[in-house]
Amino acid sequence: MKFTKMHGCGNDYVYVNLFEEKIDDYAKMSIKVSDRHFGIGSDGLITIGPSDCADFRMRIFNADGSEAEMCGNGVRCVGKYVYDHKLTDKKEVDVETGAGIKHLILNVKNDKVETVRVDMGEPVFNAKDIPVALDMDKVVDYPITVGDREWKMTCVSMGNPHAVVFIDNVKEFQIEKYGPLFENNKMFPKRTNTEFVEIISDSEVSMRVWERGSAETWACGTGTCACVLACILNGYTKDRVLVHLLGGDLTIEYDRASNHVFMTGPATEVFNGII
């Protein structure tokens, strides 16, 4: 099987072109290729194939084989892949995901995509739709006991569930201790991604993320969007925020008029291979 290793801000996936390749068991294949010691090494597997309702369809599988609805860093890399590998010559493409169709604007330089702006769609705040086991329209600054302490969380769905927690020191935070406890807390029927966020200013924050099914990753596009929306809901930032992640920076903009979230960031091809 031919594959391409790509990453968006260090959030790395193995990409497979289903126009040329075939996968029988997606979960098994994702576990195999994701293994950093016995496989290729990645946060998961992303497939690129035909769509009945968009230019392309992407599917995302976590390192544990579970399927995710959406991946912001992944969809940017899909945009780069389909243009750089000549599957399209359009600089605006629509990609079908488990969280709906995402519109991508490709920033091309020297015939290669450098950055991608993605319309991430409308956020979901209602607890039952995220889902969170609460009967509330919005879960903002809500107390939750996880591990040995009480936290205040703000929950958002960007096609997949996120719990955002504000802390003082992201760099020294014990994410390996608390990340799994949030992910598997009974408050989250479908588990959750958790963003631990430090406010720098009203236009700049730092974030680390624990992704369900993949542990800590170097970046999470939907999580970065959820982070900024949580910042806005709590009155910490303006509507355009630069977010620092372990693997790089993303710019998130919330357009109140359309209620859409826009993400701009890099997409990088690492290497091609055969497994």
Automatic annotation (TrEMBL):
GO cellular component: cytosol
Record-linked SUPFAM superfamilies: Diaminopimelate epimerase-like (SSF54506)
Protein name: Diaminopimelate epimerase
Taxonomic source organism: Lachnobacterium bovis DSM 14045
Gene3D superfamilies in UniProt: Diaminopimelate Epimerase, Chain A, domain 1
Catalytic reactions of this protein: (2S,6S)-2,6-diaminopimelate = meso-2,6-diaminopimelate
MF terms in GO: diaminopimelate epimerase activity
Keywords, in A-Z order: Amino-acid biosynthesis, Cytoplasm, Isomerase, Lysine biosynthesis
Residue sites binding substrate per the record: N11, N62, G72, N73, N160, N193, E211, R212, G221, T222
Pfam families: DAP_epimerase
Pathway: Amino-acid biosynthesis; L-lysine biosynthesis via DAP pathway; DL-2,6-diaminopimelate from LL-2,6-diaminopimelate: step 1/1
Predominant cellular place of this UniProt entry's protein: cytoplasm
GO BP, sorted A to Z: lysine biosynthetic process via diaminopimelate
Residues with site note (Could be important to modulate the pK values of the two catalytic cysteine residues): H162, E211
The protein's assembly and partners: Homodimer.
Name of encoding gene: dapF
Cellular location(s): Cytoplasm
InterPro entries referenced in this protein's UniProt entry, alphabetically: DAP_epimerase_AS, DAP_epimerase_DapF
UniProt family annotation: Belongs to the diaminopimelate epimerase family.
Active site: C71, C220
